[in-house]
Design goal:
Blueprint: H1 10-36, E1 43-53, E2 58-75, E3 78-107, H2 111-135, H3 147-177, E4 179-193, E5 197-203, E6 208-212, E7 218-222, E8 228-232, H4 237-244, E9 247-252, E10 255-263
Antiparallel strand pairs: 1-3, 2-3, 3-4, 3-5, 3-8, 6-7, 6-9, 9-10
Helix pairs in contact: 1-2, 1-3, 2-3
């Protein structure tokens, strides 16, 4: 009686090579995508503030100080000054408004699209390995399943698929985070102050003035009850002015806002 001929090993060897090739291709896909991973899904975040008025602006004039306004003219050897008592006013504008903190998120370049593509590629590679393992069981020479080899193939396919799905979930989360969001900061009162200027002029009845020439020489005089003052110039004033310039500083003593430059 003749012994049975041994079974061919061609199919078994081909099946083993195919399984190893499938796992190798899948792992190469994972490694290649992981190498590009740090450049993926870069999200640029910009923050700003937005104000939404809830009422019309309210304007009022605020008095911030009192002093003198001076109007001077040279008459030969005297500088005659008209003095007015004034208030210094500033327009104040107030408005109630709602404040918001605005956050804008956007993907930088094609980074998010690359993350979607890599996730799909890796998940597809893992699904390919799982499909191959299901449709092409490896066999030994006696026809029994190579349990260890199949476990490695299933594990490899499952791990690769899970990595791809994780990338896709991350891309989905980042995709949903894009756009503009606002957070209310509460009600605020906005204030804007105008330029300070003289207002509410009346005739001055007292005070003291000072005139400073270009060389530092100073002349002082009292304000008369009629709101005028006369500052006598020195006899050599023309020589002084020719040497040091014709500009002089006139001021009411104790009121720095009243300082004015005049030409003699």
């Amino acid at each position: 009686m003749r012994a049975p001929a041994p079974r061919p090993q061609v199919a078994t060897a081909r099946s083993a090579r195919s399984a190893r090739s499938a796992r190798l291709v899948a792992w190469l896909a994972v490694v290649g995508c992981a190498a590009l991973g740090p450049g993926c899904a870069r999200i640029a975040v910009s923050r700003s503030l937005r104000v939404a008025p809830i009422e019309a602006p309210q304007h009022r004039v605020v008095v911030v100080g009192k002093g003198f306004a001076l109007d001077a003219k040279r008459d030969a050897g005297v500088v005659n000054v008209t003095v007015r008592a004034v208030s210094y006013c500033r327009q104040l504008t107030t408005q109630r408004a709602q404040g918001f903190r605005v956050v804008q998120r956007r993907a930088v370049g094609p980074s998010l699209a690359m993350e979607w593509a890599m996730g799909a590629l890796i998940a597809g590679a893992g699904a390919t390995v799982l499909t191959y393992a299901a449709l092409n069981p490896e066999t030994t020479t006696d026809g029994e399943l190579a349990v260890g080899s199949r476990k490695r193939t299933w594990f490899t396919g499952g791990a690769i698929t899970a990595a791809g799905v994780a990338l896709l979930v991350g891309a989905l989360v980042q995709q949903r985070s894009l756009g503009r969001s606002e957070v209310a900061l509460g009600l605020k009162t906005l204030r804007k102050q105008g330029v300070e200027a003289a207002c509410q002029p009346t005739a001055a009845t007292s005070g003291r003035l000072r005139l400073t020439l270009g060389d530092g020489h100073q002349i002082e005089a009292d304000v008369r009850p009629d709101g005028t003052a006369a500052l006598p110039l020195p006899a050599d004033v023309d020589a002084r002015l020719q040497r040091d310039g014709r500009r002089a500083t006139l001021e009411a003593i104790g009121d720095w806002r009243s300082q004015t430059r005049i030409s003699l």
